[in-house]
Batch of 3 targets.
Target 1
Amino acid sequence: MKQDYTLPAQTHIGHVHLKVADLDRAMKFYCDLLGFELVTMYGMDAAFISAGGYHHHIGLNTWYSKGGTPPPAHSTGLFHTAIVYPTRKDLATILQRLRDAGYPLSGASDHGVSEALYLSDPDQNGVELYWDRPREVWPKKADGSTDIYTRPLDLQDLLQELEK
């Protein structure tokens, strides 16, 4: 096997498929709150949802998890699903929706390359909502590599985007 293989630059993650305990509850979070659209149901135990009409960005199913409980905090598994918003204003809009709904954040960070909101879905799956800054303004380390850090995100400053 060739050791120096790297993925083509156009490669991307196509979708995430999450095991949930209650499909209706998960749909309320992902569709009603976050704004994903239902593409299709797969029987009574799975739903495929997307943004912009794609066949699906997220699959939700109860095949092996109906009525189940979240995994323990200190176990292996998915850390979070990251959902990329196209603009900072779009991120501000979802922040305002979450606030209006009284939905709690577990964190908010400025990573230099991006700004991110962190929360958990009703099944305690981690969710990151973020936007990427333009690549040309990403911070760099002395050696030229990208400097990704974690600093507190100023939520009031983010919400100012809604007034522009």
Target 2
Amino acid sequence: MTIALYMDEHVRRAITNSLRLRGIDVLTVQEDNRMGTPDPILLDRATELNRVLFTQDDDFLAIASDRQKEGINFSGVIYAHQQYVTVGDCVRDLEIIAKVGETEDLANQVQYLPL
């Protein structure tokens, strides 16, 4: 089984398109008609859809940390800093995670890129 991804609003389209070309199940916030939705609600939405959220927004790190401390379940967050990880590195690492991982592996976790 593969991991389905939920792409945050500001993730570059090149990342999403490249992942789709590699057969990764990707849904963007825009496609889900959730543009402008507050970050905590986006994480709830990803969890509801059983998708791991990919973001380059460090606000999600605080949200995930708070949920871990409070014991609130979430589907997982994959984070890549915009300035320190290239599009190619994101695509490569997200493909690896999606193809070899299980959704449960990332539950209530934050995975940092690059791997």
Target 3
Amino acid sequence: MTLAIFDLDNTLLAGDSDHAWGEFLVEEGIVDAETYRKANDRFYQEYLNGELNIQTYLEFALQPLSIHSMNELLEWRATFMDKKVRPMLLQKAEELLNSHRARGHTLMIITATNRFVTEPIADVLGIEHLIATEPEMVNGRYTGGIAGTPSFQEGKVARLNDWLAATSESLDGAWFYSDSHNDLPLLEIVPNPIAVDPDPKLDEYAKNRGWKVMSLRG
């Protein structure tokens, strides 16, 4: 099968679901507004700059999951989907996904954002295969820790290679769509790398390499 792989935030979505989840927690009064928003914004800027320490960030981002019941978390997540995620959905992204479906390609999202946030988004987009950072869970509750390798930068390649080995699939003819220079390790190894509404670093790199650059927004 031919894989069509997609980054999620600022690629298939007109925004960042990870940062938006933090904003949602602030707006709903679930976390301390001032300190949490300041940290959330700082980590997001570090991500944009290519300076994010993923372990430090995940300690911050996964901590709220560990102090609330699953029932509370699921109720909040449903509200988050309505308030924050659905306004980020893009008609052109849906058309792109459908064009790959029509060619018989297998669709996958690979994202650094954790599975708790991203799994319902993948469901809404109709994408069965999701590689996301896995929050650790023990006895039905999140611990605040990470299970396995975060799917970030080179970690996306490692996690994808694990999936390929487990499924006996390959990257022959594969596509990967991303907006971020953080995804260069994976963009470099697929036959069809596509820069989607790219950040300045990726835009320059893609043009120098002769990669296709496209927009799902304009």
